[in-house]
Amino acid sequence: MTTDTTTKSAASGATPGETVLDARGVTMRFGGLTAVSDVDLTVNSGEIVGLIGPNGAGKTTFFNCLTGLYIPTEGEVRYKNQVLPPKSFKVTAAGIARTFQNIRLFANMTVLENVLVGRHTRTREGLWSALLRGPGFHKAEAASRARAMELLEFVGLAAKADHLARNLPYGEQRKLEIARALASEPGLLLLDEPTAGMNPQETRAAEELIFAIRDRGIAVLVIEHDMRFIMNLCDRVAVLVQGKKLIEGDAATVQRDERVIAAYLGEPLANDPGAEEAAEVEAAEAAAEATTDAAPGKENDR
Ligand SMILES: Nc1ncnc2c1ncn2[C@@H]1O[C@H](COP(=O)(O)OP(=O)(O)OP(=O)(O)O)[C@@H](O)[C@H]1O
Ligand SMILES: [Mg+2]
């Protein structure tokens, strides 16, 4: 009987520059509402890609379409050239892990137990072994705990392994969610507003953590409203507005795009000449401000 060694990694074998995620024409309708409309997006190995857009733009819905939580009304999602199965646990097993906008932890489990739960897609083959509780099971369990502790060390929570998840401050709960996602050994990590509720120091630490994740060979797709965070972090940024991809490009290109500025200022995109003129003035002012402020540290654009 084979027992999973718990070291299997979906991240291993990634070729630099390989397309990890390929979403084509993804559309999600809820009755009469089109939350996501014909969105194409790719993420390559070694990349950190940002997904931004106003509230209700369809960002989380798009993530749900990528992770098997929703079956897109139209379109196709491929991970490393394989069409993804429409079940979230199968998507996780294939190599895509995620965190949630509204933290989803097992509040009454310890920090370590939460990470161990995240490992189950990598230890399924050990089911018989687990039932029989033979030497293979104990070996696999020890390896799993060691890996979970290593991940807690990586995110800076090792000292709190035995604490209950509900007793962690908010910022640490977000880190724990990341550790749990990493426990499934993904090749692509999707983060839905990882710095929401964090203070500036925690946000900076989260930035470093995401760079370190990328350096471990895991591609990252991240949703955030914090523009400074996104622009510092991302190789490419895609902007969703009313379910549609408005623009995609490097941080500088996206940052100075007037439609993006207008979308964030809440100006209507419709052809209202008065509104358009006002938007242009505001956009120019914002762009001037952005250039002044952004020069050394990109202190702007929240
Ligand atoms: N399960 C659902 N049923 C019906 N409508 C939904 C469902 N999920 C999302 N929506 C709608 O789809 C639209 C997009 O919502 P979504 O949560 O994806 O936006 P978002 O870009 O993540 O916004 P935020 O920045 O506020 O998190 C909204 O109008 C929302 O009300
Ligand atoms: Mg959302």
From TrEMBL:
PROSITE patterns: ABC_TRANSPORTER_2 (PS50893). Residues 274-283 have a biased composition (Acidic residues). Residues 270-302 are annotated as: Disordered. InterPro entries: AAA+_ATPase, ABC_AA/LPS_Transport, ABC_transporter-like_ATP-bd, BCA_ABC_TP_C, P-loop_NTPase. Keywords: ATP-binding, Nucleotide-binding, Transport. Residues 284-295 have a biased composition (Low complexity). Residues 21-267 form the ABC transporter domain. SMART domains: AAA. GO terms for molecular function: ATP binding. This is ABC transporter ATP-binding protein.
